[in-house]
């Protein structure tokens, strides 16, 4: 006798039934698994899931959740790096808003964001629109444009310092062609922020370029061909067909670029040390100097939470405004 074992679950009661199919003329036996086995099986599976998720969950709790909560508590305390600490309530926030340097670095950060975000998006979107399938070996160009993004930022800063410094490549080129010296970009109040922004755009546009390029490749050819048959120019085709189609990708890139630009630290810190004076000192650098140089951890934590509220507010505005121009169809 040949027996085949199959399992089927009744939709109404979700019971597991074992059916043994025997040879013709032989009786069929039906056994129902005990009800007590199902909770135990579910419990074992839950424990296995928890066990696999535990390393990540523990790491998230120890290195993300706990520090965030601790920084909020510290922001309400006078907490020097060495010595005792006392509860001061909102005193750190009052000192922060009364500090004129704080408003200078907020202005510098806003200036950086206003310059960097549009330039990054325009350069990355323009290159992505250029890298159409008609461009031969476009994958090579993608790799070349993406290399600055994956290059360590410290190495990028070293190269750009050599370009910006007196008698550097830019200065030498202007002297040989126009007979004029280039301005001292990193020591000039007028040029320092522009120098930081230019270096940041070069180092950061590759990521958004890949996002936009992949989104443009996903635009249906039928829509583009229909627009061309209607006599639409290349610009109108891009603005009225391609742009709405890739608007979710543009929204994502805009939001992420805004968040990272408010958190800029490495470029101004290594290029100018925040100088000349405080012309390029950003909010994150101010928090760093307050906490680790002035050793005022409570005041630094208050600055970090002010930055968090700023980013949270701008992100909320982005999500509310995206309903007007982002199309998910």
Task: Give me the count of strands.
Answer: 5
Q: Quickly give the structural class.
A: mainly alpha
Question: Quick check: average pLDDT?
Answer: 86
Count of alpha and pi helical runs: 12
Strand order of the largest sheet: 1-2-3
Described by its quaternary structure, the protein is: single chain
Total domain modules: 2
| Shape field | globular
The helix content is 55-70%
The CATH topology of the largest domain = MetI-like fold
Uncertain residue ranges: 1-19
CATH domain class of the largest domain: Mainly Alpha
Q: How far apart are the termini?
A: 58 Å
Largest sheet: 3 strands, antiparallel
User: Can you name the CATH architecture of the largest domain?
Assistant: Orthogonal Bundle
Radius of gyration: 30 Å
Order of helices and strands: EEEHEEHHHHHHHHHHH
Architecture overview:
Keywords: Cell membrane, Membrane, Transmembrane, Transmembrane helix, Transport. This is Sugar ABC transporter permease. It is a multi-pass membrane protein. The chain is mainly alpha-helical and 329 residues long. It folds into two domains: 2-80, no CATH class; 91-325, MetI-like fold, CATH 1.10.3720.10. The chain has helices at residues 37-74, 91-98, 100-130, 138-150, 153-164, 169-177, 192-217, 221-229, 234-262, 266-271, 283-293, 297-321; strands at 4-9, 16-21, 30-32, 77-78, 86-87.
